[in-house]
């Protein structure tokens, strides 16, 4: 069942709740939402241990583009709005660009008590071609022309989808589902900031002071694994590589890692006086 909460600027944020236990918020990556992406299945596995909150980020699913112009601050406020509905505090798991948003939120919101991240798509060394410095402008120019299909193609090529795979994707129903949310790509790319130019992450960009787990997949590209090692370094986080996983992780593999990490808070909290 869809619920709605009001963000700070008046935008109605669509979200769902399932399960019981400590509150856990899942933050999607680019173009995904509650009913289209990996968190749908992941939530159904995790709800045996947590009260899982999933939500539609701005411009996706049942959440509109926003009552005010998009900004990173508005997206952080959206996270805060869902956490308020969860009782004021929650564990958070973010994947891909959602991991970067989760890092930004954890730097600003006291309600996030533990943070797990999977493959934030930074480029921190020479193992992958840097993103063009003007990629956000390019995307906005395509959007202004109404060329959503080219926006998707440009993004897919940039993240390494091979030409044959892209050609096949354009013939599937998935492509039609992606085009309505293509306008959110410049937003996700803005969230990534300049951390795609092939240089290490700045040590002072994030002020995350809660226990954090940075994860990557053993079969993912080298640049993503290197990026998450760098994330672990700058956040002082634990680091874990999930054997056999790619950027599209399997819920059956991810869920036990999250249960183990977030359950540490319960085991170490001690008795209440």
Automatic annotation (TrEMBL):
UniProt GO BP: glycerolipid catabolic process
SUPFAM superfamilies documented for this protein: alpha/beta-Hydrolases
Signal peptide segment: none
GO molecular function: triacylglycerol lipase activity
AB hydrolase-1 domain: residues covered: 39-247
InterPro entries for this protein: AB_hydrolase, AB_hydrolase_1, AB_hydrolase_fold
Pfam families from the UniProt entry: Abhydrolase_6
Annotated protein name in UniProt: Pimeloyl-ACP methyl ester carboxylesterase
Organism: Lentzea jiangxiensis
């Amino acid at each position: 069942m869809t619920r709605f909460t009001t963000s700070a600027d008046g935008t109605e944020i669509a979200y769902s709740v399932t399960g019981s236990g400590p509150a856990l918020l899942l933050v999607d990556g680019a173009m995904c939402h509650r009913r289209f992406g990996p968190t749908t299945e992941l939530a159904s596995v995790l709800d045996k241990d947590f009260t899982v909150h999933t939500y539609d980020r701005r411009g996706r699913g049942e959440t509109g583009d926003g009552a005010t112009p998009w900004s990173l601050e508005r997206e952080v406020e959206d996270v805060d709005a869902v956490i308020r509905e969860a009782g004021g505090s929650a564990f958070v798991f973010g994947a891909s660009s959602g991991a970067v948003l989760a890092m930004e939120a954890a730097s600003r919101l006291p309600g996030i008590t533990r943070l797990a991240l999977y493959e934030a798509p930074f480029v921190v060394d020479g193992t992958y071609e840097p993103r063009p410095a003007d990629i956000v402008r390019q995307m906005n120019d395509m959007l202004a022309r109404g060329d959503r299909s080219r926006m998707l193609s440009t993004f897919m090529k940039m993240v390494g989808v091979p030409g044959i795979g892209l050609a096949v994707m354009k013939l599937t129903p998935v492509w039609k589902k992606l085009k309505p949310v293509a306008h959110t790509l410049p937003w996700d790319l803005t969230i990534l900031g300049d951390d795609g130019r092939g240089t290490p992450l700045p040590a002072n960009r994030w002020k995350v002071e809660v226990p954090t787990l940075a994860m990557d997949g053993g079969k993912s590209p080298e640049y993503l694994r290197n990026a998450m090692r760098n994330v672990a370094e700058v956040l002082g986080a634990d680091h874990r590589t999930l054997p056999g996983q790619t950027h599209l992780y399997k819920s059956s593999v991810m869920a036990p890692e999250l249960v183990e990490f977030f359950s540490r808070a319960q085991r170490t909290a001690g008795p209440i006086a």
